[in-house]
């Protein structure tokens, strides 16, 4: 009887914990991918919309000093 108590039995690995960790990692990866794609597309959209205004050479209207005199 004393031998049974001195030898600890190896603990069985819980497969539920491994699966839950895997699911959490996959969900975080999907969320990260969505954020990455959204930010990248936002930058592309801003770049495409900013080019025509810069390329047209239109400058903001600045009143000339003394023009109304």
List the helices and strands and how they pair.
Layout: H1 2-6, H2 15-55
Could you name the key traits of this structure?
mainly alpha, transmembrane helix, 69 residues, 2 helices, membrane, transmembrane, 67% helix, Signal peptide transmembrane protein
Describe the model.
This is Signal peptide transmembrane protein. The chain contains two helices and no strands. By secondary structure, the chain is mainly alpha-helical. The protein has a domain of 30 residues.
Low-confidence stretches: none
Tally the helices. 2
Percent of residues in helices? 55-70%
Q: Sheet with the most strands? A: none
Strand content: under 5%
Quick one: overall form? rod-shaped
What is the SS-derived class? mainly alpha
Compressed to H and E, one letter per element, the order equals HH
Residue-averaged pLDDT: 80
Our measurement of the CA-to-CA distance between the termini, rounded to an integer number of angstroms, reads 112 Å
Measured on Cα atoms, how large is the radius of gyration? 32 Å
Summarize the structure.
The protein contains two helices and no strands. The chain has helices spanning 2-6, 15-55.
């Amino acid at each position: 009887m004393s031998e049974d108590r001195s030898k600890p039995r190896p603990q069985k690995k819980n497969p539920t914990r491994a699966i839950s960790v895997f699911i959490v990692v996959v969900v975080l990866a999907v969320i990260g991918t969505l954020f990455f794609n959204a930010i990248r597309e936002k930058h592309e959209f801003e770049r495409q919309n900013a080019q025509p205004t810069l390329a047209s050479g239109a400058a903001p209207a600045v009143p000339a000093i003394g023009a109304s005199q």
